Amino acid sequence: MATFDLLADLPLEVDGYVLEGLSAQVSSGFSRRTTLVHLQGGGLEGIGEDVVYDADDHVALQEAGPVHALAGRYALGEFCELIDSLDLFPAAPQREVSRLYRRWTFHSAALDLALVQAGRPLHAALGRKPSRVRFVVSLRLGEPPTLDPVTSRLARYPTLRFKLDPTSSWTPELIAALVDTGAVDSVDFKSLYRGTVVDQPPDPVLYRRVVEAFPGAWIEDPDVVTPETAAVLEPYHDRITWDASIHSIDDIESLPFPPRMVNIKPSRIGGLANLCATYDYCAERGIGAYGGGQFELGPGRGQAQYLASLFHPDTPNDLAPVGFHSSDPPPGLPASPLPPAPSNVGFRWGGQ
């Protein structure tokens, strides 16, 4: 049976919803805002987290308030179709992909509420057993780059694994020192970003140094179009993974060659039916998957970890506990792999 078919007929009673804003100063140097959607029905509540990146879009949503008339009785699949038919932005979003993020917010809140009303947790509804979740910590090493962000974390958490963003300023000496840590699971070349602070232009010298230095690391989002970098990467196609471009099954099928691994972000896929179909598609074709975070401040991170525990627990999930976002992670954070922590009912993880 298709995964979504296990969820689509769950009964859902909705009375309305309220919004709650969250904010925090995060380590990458910007003030992060998210919005929680509390979907209410029958005296119970389901929660989803809007991870749209632009602060103005959160301000507009919170100032407009709960403007959509959602009250009624539905099957979960019918409610998701209703959400898909609505314009969830009071004003046009700063970027079009934000529509997918907000759609997932309402779908995830509805899934949570339907499961709470049914008195069941997600894994029971899917007939799956939650597993321990392996995670990596995603880092940039600054400009000029330094080993300190890695070594300072390893000093406190010696078993940590990392996903790093190589830049043209990485020296052979820095790369050798990173190799000596033995802690690098993946490298993200971020070639698909344009006009952002994390852009990394194609650099064949950097590519060759990095892919040869870390023969066991996954290579995320490299440039395979520019002839010089494509030539460097040609022997390593089996290590290449894709993230920023993956919003749908069509995007996977449009990749330049069949992937062994893709990053499936629930918010980027943008809807419960599409997410379930993407999991099924990858499983049927032997394509590995891993999850990624979106700087969540609330239950969205735990929900992504929950999905990872069910569909791809033993891959380099970029889903470290939020305490690792800090430039100086505090003591006492959980190590990888995370033990299973599903809620007794609903779509929540870690006691949320």
Structure description:
The chain has 352 residues and is an alpha/beta fold. 34% of the residues lie in helices and 17% in strands. The chain contains twelve helices and twelve strands. The strands form three sheets. Strands 6-7-8-9-10-11-12 form a seven-stranded parallel β-sheet, covered by helices on one side. Strands 2-3-4 form a three-stranded antiparallel β-sheet. Helix 5 (148-156) links the parallel strand 6 (137-139) and strand 7. 45% of the residues are buried. The model has no long low-confidence stretch (mean pLDDT 95).
Task: Sum up the structure in keywords.
2 domains; three-stranded antiparallel beta sheet; globular; seven-stranded parallel beta sheet; TIM Barrel; 34% helix; alpha/beta; Enolase-like, domain 1; 352 residues; 12 strands
User: Domains counted in the coordinates: how many?
Assistant: 2
> What fold name goes in the CATH topology slot of the largest domain?
TIM Barrel
Q: Helicity range of the residues?
A: 25-40%
* Structural Rg: 20 Å
SS class: alpha/beta
Give the CA-based shape: globular
Q: What is the CATH level 1 assignment of the largest domain?
A: Alpha Beta
Question: Whole-number average pLDDT?
Answer: 95
Record the strand order, biggest sheet.
6-7-8-9-10-11-12
Task: Profile the largest sheet.
Answer: 7 strands, parallel
Q: Count helical runs.
A: 12
Instruction: Note the beta-strand portion.
Output: 15-25%
Q: Do you know the CATH architecture of the largest domain?
A: Alpha-Beta Barrel
CATH homologous superfamily label of the largest domain? Enolase-like C-terminal domain
